[in-house]
Predict the structure.
Amino acid sequence: MSARKIASGFVSESITVQAREARLALTEDSVAIHRGGIEFRSPTPFAAWTEMTLALRARDNGVVNCSGVVISCTGSRHAGYHVSMVFTGLSKQAQARLNQMVQSPLA
């Protein structure tokens, strides 16, 4: 994944992550969005290769719908889990919108 993270001001207060076994509503400060994927904390563990869908809501009321696959899930039920996933099959429009959301560390 790229080292670029989400720029403040682009995402509203909720990000929805959904898999068969769980649906999470995450806040902007609990995720790191990269060009190629997303990392977040979860109270629920996810197995590697679990397919998930995401809805990223921008402050201008635009929504970027993405799908992805979990590549890593570490942690414990006591401390929570750190989940990393990569985006799969992004449309050109969704990729362009994500590119607007990420901020270069040099910018």
